[in-house]
Amino acid sequence: MTAALFRFELAGARRARVAILFAAGFAIVGIGVALAGLSAGGVLSVQGFARTSMSLLQLVLWVVPMLALLTGAAAGSELRDLEFIAALPISRGSRVLSRWAALTATLGGAVALGLGAAGAIIAAMAGSADGWRYLRLALVSELLLGATLAVGLLIGVVAANRTRALGIAMAAWFVLVIGMDLAVIALLSALPAKGAGSWLTAVLLANPVDSARVLGLSLFQVDAIAGPTGAALRRVLGGWGAGVLLLGLLGWTVVPLVVAAKGLRRGQG
Amino acid sequence: MIRLRGLGHSYDTHRVLENFTLDVAAGEVVALVGPNGAGKSTVLRLATGGLLVEEGAVEIGGFDLATRPIDARRRLGYLPQKLGVSLSTVVSDLARLVAAARGVSAVQAFDALGDAGLGARLDATLGELSGGQRQRVLLVLASLGPVAVLLLDEPAISLDADGSADVQAIICRARDEGTAVLFASHHLVDVATLADRMVVLVGGHPVAQGSVAELVAEGGQHWTGLGAPPIEAAYRAIVTRARGGQDRGRAPLALVGARTA
Predict the structure, then answer these.
(1) I need a surface site. Which of A241, A252, B154, B250 has the fewest CB within 10 A?
(2) Are A215 and A140 a contacting pair, CB within 8 Å?
């Protein structure tokens, strides 16, 4: 039954135009970023994977959560209205999980397609050196997509209606992408330097976008690029940092889905 | 069969249903009638689990909806008043899902849709169908397979004469197959034709129930049993009296034909 429901949700998700826009947008931006770096010098050439990945990281951190939160909120809100489906012998958990999995597969496929198209052009024109960084950037994008889609679904399920869900999703995007960083800057400047490390770790885990940001930065010898900040980051996270952040992102995926399944029962209709 | 016990519900602070109890036996057709906002759709949504049952209990085919929701819904068919499915859903995709949920083959679902004259629209989305075709698709799929309880909310809404006849045929077939049917409708003539029993809801309270003949008598109308029953006049009298309107001098209605507790 769960497989049948997943196929049903996947068919619905694949018909949505947002996936095509997602793929085309990432392909165009990826190629554009690869071309843009050196064109200022008067010579149009393609940047390699390392510099393109670094440039794309910030874009991923802004665009992926926005689209995932909005798409998830709309999909979660719709889940409440599908009374015909809700009357079938399918658990709420299966309905939430199937919808999340179908959206993640579709949008994740679109991201992979978009970044992959850009990557193929970069590889052909600038060589495949540092291609692994680009692949890991794609993986971080997928993890962030899955986590923020889950948060968006939860918002959609618990919000009173679709309009409110989309509004809350936009507010959540602002908090996760910008607001929390501002709050962290203020917090760390107010705290004594000794205790700041543990606070920073907690804040990184408390925000999936920051977790993805640090995972992304870890691709680029962050000590060298980000100077003392990068060195501090490595010290705070220690050797297990990447694993902890991955678990954090997994938690940001699983917990919202579980809460959404419970919320769907209460808020149905 | 389906058993509804002491159901109550509020939307925020607005009380819409109070202590509603009803049994519908296998092979019985019961109609819920009443003015807009009387609580008919709320009863059906509580019975499917579409609304969380916080007061009372629902039992479908011997399974409690609160504790065994999947077992309870395994043999339940439901046609909601609102579409209840995304307009971008392709008919064949929905048919496959419902078939898997009911344990029948997709071919059986396609055949059932074909029998309802929808065989050529399997690849269309629900949004591409007319309102009547959409209603027929959902009605056919709601009653697909071994359904023991069929709940229909305004099944003939937006249907033409042929579509209404299809609804009547589906309800009659379900009854003949031993399915318990509970439906809400404003079409009193259809109700009088199809229902073994009617329940009149006003302001969230069941104010009368019984066979057509019993309700006609309760509404102060005379009917010999020949020709069409004066059900609309009887219904208006019952509703008006329940609201404390024109017949204020009369005694409150008693529940008639009480097959419920």
Answers:
(1) B250
(2) yes
